[in-house]
């Protein structure tokens, strides 16, 4: 009986998170109410407050459901990327991000909400600190990989690892932001990966090494979502 109650509670919680994604996407975060989310989930407001303290708590839980597995895959033990050489790791991380955004509906919804459906004001102002911290950590990891690539392979980078990391993160942010604005505008995997390759070559990494490493990275499945992944196969060295 206790196990069934726990399963029912977990099902209700997930239904509320699913509903939050739909309501935040349709109405924007600041304009959405807990009552609307409860209605979308077929639950009561009491059920919402049983699982979440307030809208901010619910929003954070919705984000965590996507970003925690994402963080674990990228820089945690899952997939053992922490043990991969720096250039293959960078290429693999970029492929995971872009491929996951294109192919996973939940990742796409949540990133759309983060980039296009919210304002860091009022009760959501605290989220700006979290968002900034996340971006800074991603930049730090990229800078470490750039530095390691230069040290281990003897490549002469065109800028400091920190500067190159900021540029790469900004390129990825821009690609994702623009694609989510108009999904039909360009192919995020094909064009996005090609743009990143051009950037890495401009950063001082050899064209052949970048193309070969992306070819290997994109041939692997993406573990970010439960659905099976097809390799994106978009590595065209002619664009470099």
Description:
The chain has 240 residues and is an all-alpha fold. Helix content is 69%, strand content 0%. The protein contains ten helices and no strands. It has helices at 2-27, 34-41, 45-51, 55-75, 86-103, 105-116, 126-153, 161-181, 190-202, 207-217. Helix 7 packs across helix 8. The termini are far apart. Mean pLDDT is 86; it is low at 226-240.
Descriptive terms for the model:
single chain, 240 residues, mainly alpha, 69% helix, elongated
Write the layout of secondary structure elements.
Layout: H1 2-27, H2 34-41, H3 45-51, H4 55-75, H5 86-103, H6 105-116, H7 126-153, H8 161-181, H9 190-202, H10 207-217
Helix pairs in contact: 1-2, 1-4, 1-6, 5-6, 5-7, 5-10, 7-8, 8-9, 9-10
Low-confidence segments, given as residue ranges, are 226-240
Distance between the termini: 61 Å
What number is the mean pLDDT?
A: 86
Task: Output the radius of gyration.
Answer: 20 Å
Number of strands: 0
Order of helices and strands: HHHHHHHHHH
The major beta sheet can be summarized as:
none
The geometry reads as: elongated
Structural class computed from helices and strand pairing: mainly alpha
Helix content: 55-70%
The number of helical runs is: 10
């Amino acid at each position: 009986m206790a196990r069934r109650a726990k399963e029912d509670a977990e099902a209700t919680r997930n239904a509320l998170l699913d509903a939050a994604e739909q309501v935040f996407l349709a109405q924007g975060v600041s304009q959405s109410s807990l009552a609307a989310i409860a209605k979308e989930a077929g639950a009561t407001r009491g059920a919402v407050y049983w699982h979440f303290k307030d809208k901010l708590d619910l929003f954070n839980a919705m984000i965590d459901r996507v970003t925690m597995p994402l963080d674990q895959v990228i820089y945690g033990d899952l997939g053992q990327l922490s043990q991969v050489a720096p250039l293959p790791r960078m290429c693999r991380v970029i492929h995971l991000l872009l491929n996951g955004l294109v192919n996973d509906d939940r990742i796409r919804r949540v990133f759309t909400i983060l980039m296009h459906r919210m304002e860091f004001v009022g009760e959501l102002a605290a989220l700006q600190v979290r968002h900034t911290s996340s971006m800074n950590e991603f930049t730090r990891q990229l800078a470490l990989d750039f530095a390691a690539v230069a040290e281990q392979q003897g490549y002469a980078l065109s800028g400091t690892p920190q500067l190159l990391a900021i540029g790469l993160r900004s390129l990825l942010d821009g690609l994702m932001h623009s694609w989510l604005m108009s999904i039909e505008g360009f192919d995020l995997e094909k064009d996005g990966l090609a743009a990143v390759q051009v950037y890495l070559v401009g950063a001082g990494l050899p064209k052949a090494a970048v193309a070969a490493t992306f070819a290997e990275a994109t041939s692997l499945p993406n573990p970010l979502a439960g659905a099976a992944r097809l390799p994106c196969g978009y590595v065209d060295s002619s664009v470099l």
